[in-house]
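Lab notebook, bench 4. The sequencing result for the construct came back, and we need a structural model before the next group meeting so we can plan mutations. Quick request posted to the team channel:

Model the 3D structure of this chain.
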Amino acid sequence: MPEERKIAAWLTDMDGVLVHEERAIPGANEFIGALRDTGTPFLILTNNSIYTPRDLRARLANSGLDVEEKSIWTSALATATFLSDQVPNGSAFAVGEAGLTTALYEAGYTMTDRDPEYVVLGETRTYSFEAITKAIRLIKGGARFICTNPDTTGPSAEGPLPATGAVAALITAATGRDPYFVGKPNPMMFRSALNRIGAHSEHTAMVGDRMDTDIIAGMEAGLTTFLVLTGSTSREEVDKFPFRPSVVVDSVADLVGRV
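Done. Here's the predicted structure in token form:
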């Protein structure tokens, strides 16, 4: 059974697993501490492409969690890694914030709005109609269409905000071109994370709170999957899906002893 595999490395989602509304979930600090104390390779994954790992480290620190930048893997980093593998030192027109543009620059990409090889769409708090129009024209002109993640909405204090997936749908409607989404639930993001820490899927676990992103992507990437009930999925909702996590636990606190 998958849960009987020896686990030598861990991937974990951030929101709903380690933090909730800027507060650490009980047991999260102990879980991260156990990973660090045992020297176990791990990465914290997020589909959010707005922030750099440095930004996210500060956010976690404010929540009471001490995590190094190198232990954070975003959909922007996964996207930059994917593009660098596809077309090294290529060019892109990016719609997004520092998390995306910094990742692309560090991967050797040039930002341009003149005949780029790719249009890369990520999240931003303020989507510009001018930038979306430019993206549509570039895609119709032959640029390939890439998105950091398929999430259609993101949270804010005032309520949901349109996110990458929603704006991608607008661009697809205008161009007739579907994007390639790199982030969860694409197992590509998990494979790039595994490569980052030198881990093998057979001996790696994924901890998540969403069946439709974390668990299905972990399963498709060949990982042992742990669903925690501190986020968006209840125990009753698990049976509604045609697939199951390897193990369901109440919270990340239940996993400290497994590290």
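The chain has two domains: 2-47+184-258, 79-181.
Will bring this to the meeting.
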